[in-house]
Amino acid sequence: EDQVTQSPEALRLQEGESSSLNCSYTVSGLRGLFWYRQDPGKGPEFLFTLYSAGEEKEKERLKATLTKKESFLHITAPKPEDSATYLCAVQVSQGGSEKLVFGKGTKLTVNP
Amino acid sequence: KAGVTQTPRYLIKTRGQQVTLSCSPISGHRSVSWYQQTPGQGLQFLFEYFSETQRNKGNFPGRFSGRQFSNSRSEMNVSTLELGDSALYLCASSFSTYYGYTFGSGTRLTVV
After folding, report:
1. Which of A40, B42, B79, B83 is the most buried (most CB within 10 A)?
2. E strands, chain A, in order
3. pLDDT tens, N- to C-terminus, chain B (112 residues)
4. Do A87 and B106 touch (CB under 8 A)?
5. How many residue pairs from chains A and B have C-beta atoms closer than 8 A?
6. Which of B35, B44, B56 sits opposite A94 (nearest CB)?
7. Are the Cβ atoms of B102 and A46 closer than 8 angstroms?
């Protein structure tokens, strides 16, 4: 069964304190790995897609990396506005199409 | 560019009733997927439609159904509502699954 595990469940940082979020996965056929950000009461907002081990992508203070078994979302010098739940999802093949299998997310709080 | 629009935003229904939720995808996107988000289970895949055909289905009972119209707009229906159906229902549209999915803000369904 396809599984995605995110750690930690919650993370509190001080503004400027860098850290990393982890997403480990066990899937039968990985098509891609997605990172989303979700604010309370809103839908997930797309951040990155990674397709192959060794791939890295950056956007402002965020950098996502991918290995064969896990992905990391590195947050450099975070600001309070980076507070949100970060979701990791793997795209897997099923029934001639694809679907996303999500982790439970990491709730990030950045204190000023 | 308009995003994915879901209506209504909030809904309160009584156990045993049925409900229909609507999703208008981004113009040009022919794939529409539905997800259920609960605090305990996170985001779980319901089904995916492409060109009016259901291509993929998650592990949900038959009370959950959907359809897609020729203009790519999609509806999902839940019959005989149960308390456990209370959740945020999210719709995501895609031009090509290779390029990822854009989510709407969701419909918050409360069953009382």
Report:
1. B42
2. 3-7, 10-14, 19-26, 30-38, 45-50, 56-59, 62-66, 70-75, 84-94, 97-102, 106-111
3. 679 999 999 999 999 999 999 999 999 999 999 999 999 999 999 999 999 999 989 999 999 999 999 999 999 999 999 999 999 999 999 988 777 899 999 999 999 9
4. no
5. 63
6. B56
7. yes
- Collapsing DSSP to helix, strand or coil, B98 comes out as helix
Closest residue on chain A to B102 (Cα): A46
Q: What is the pLDDT of residues A33-69, one digit of tens each?
A: 999 999 998 999 999 999 999 999 999 999 999 998 9
Amino acid, res. B56 = N
Question: Nearest CA of chain B to the CA of A44: how many Å?
Answer: 6
Can you tell me the distance from the alpha carbon of A79 to that of A109, in angstroms, rounded to the nearest whole number? 9
